[in-house]
Amino acid sequence: MQIALINGSPKYKNSASEVILEDLEECLKKNPNIKVTHFSFLKPQIDQKDIKSLFSCNCWVFAFPLYVDGIPSHLLNCMIQLEKYIGAHPNVPKTIHVYGISNSGFHEGKQNIIAIEILKNWCIKSGLIWGQGLGVGAGGMLAGLKKVPLGHGPKKNLGKAFEPFVSNIVHRKSEEIIVTSANFPRLAYKIAAEFGWRKQIKANGLKRKDIFRKCN
Amino acid sequence: MKLLIHDLKSDVFQSAFPSLPEDTKITSNESTIHHCIGCFGCWVKTPSKCSIRDKYGNMGEYLSKCNELIIVSNCRYGGFSPFVKSVLDRSISYVHPYFRFINGEMHHKRRYDNKINLHVHFYGEITEDEKNTANKLVKANSINLDLDSYDVSFYKVTKEMEGIILCK
Q: Which InterPro entries match (chain B) (predicted)?
């Protein structure tokens, strides 16, 4: 079975979506019948070559960051392009199962539910088969946890959530959404994130107080 | 100030809304909009301004000066159209990167004190599932941007919007 892992982050590197898909690939590769192809939707348009490759896959797994409670606009453009392509090519396989992983900077995984619903609505409108969604909270720390093995430390819950999610992908099953968050206290996550913002603002040559700057 | 974000073509917009209050700032699809690249420059590099300096780099400022936010958007899968979503993605400088908790959920702190009422007008062929998603989305937006109130309307075709009052 051929699985497309689609990174929907607009970041070239070090995105939480990249870490999630790397961990997912490790899990999927335990099954010898699985072959994985990587796609990166960095821009609002997909190359024709990539579109053709996508339709040679049995499953599409999207991983993307939550932007303003929804799907990032560049990825939304890509989805519209795919819907139009399907409409214009009636012979493309409609047996493709679609799975989605949304990660947010907020601690609660449930804040991703609406973005997953939008992906599901797109899937249905495009005539594809909806598989499952996974909402991941505390995505802000995932990029820094590349070397932490899945199922351990702050990625313990993610490992647990991956068990049914990966099984459903492998068996092309449709299930209800799963939400999860990091094994890291919410208050500590807030403190760490705010420390990180201050560190970045100083690295950019600004003062700590500049983080409160207003336009008017 | 009233801030109107819409994705209508200019002729459709003109026929639907021939006259608007004088204090209305309009943000429309008049030039290419660059999508948000998730750099967080609007929080840590050029705080309160988007680091991408195209025509849509001052959305945070516009939001800080408005008390009525009106969005007219094609409904895509229960969400906004790509143009409107780009504008919203490029508007996060309106909020502060620090967090706070509202009803047990993590959200961003306010950067500004202004109060905003949000009015969303979705148009297009919209399924019931998409309407449900759209209602939830606008509610979530109003919580995350800490808006005062919100309402959502749906129209099958843009013609239905002719003569409507954009702010209830």
A: Flavoprotein-like_sf
Number of alpha carbons in the 13 Å side-chain half-sphere of residue A118: 35
Inter-chain touch A44–B82, beta carbons under 8 Å: yes
Check B97 against A76: CB less than 8 A apart.
no
Answer whether A191 touches B (CB < 8 Å): no
The CATH number assigned to the domain holding B24 equals 3.40.50
Q: Is the confidence metric ipTM above 0.90 for this complex?
A: yes
Domain containing B50: what range? 2-161
Domains of chain A, residue spans: 2-184, 185-215
Tokens in use for B9? Answer: 């073509």
B36: nearest CB among A72, A122, A186: A72
Structure tokens at B30: 């008049």
In this structure, chain B runs to a length of: 168
pLDDT (tens digit, 0 to 9) for every residue of chain A, 216 residues total? 999 999 999 999 999 999 999 999 999 999 999 999 999 999 999 999 999 999 999 999 999 999 999 999 999 999 999 999 999 999 999 899 999 999 999 999 999 999 999 999 999 999 999 999 999 999 989 988 989 999 999 999 999 999 999 999 999 999 999 999 999 999 999 999 999 999 999 999 999 999 999 986
Residue B25: inside a domain, yes or no?
A: yes
A163 touches chain B (CB under 8 A): no
A residues 13-52 lying closer than 8 A (beta carbon) to B: 15, 44
DSSP label of B66 = -
Task: Report the SS3 class of residue B14.
Answer: helix
User: With contacts defined as CB-CB under 8 Å, which chain A residues touch B76?
Assistant: 76, 80, 118, 122
Sign of CA dihedral B136, A19, A62, A96: negative
Domain range A2-184, CATH class: alpha beta
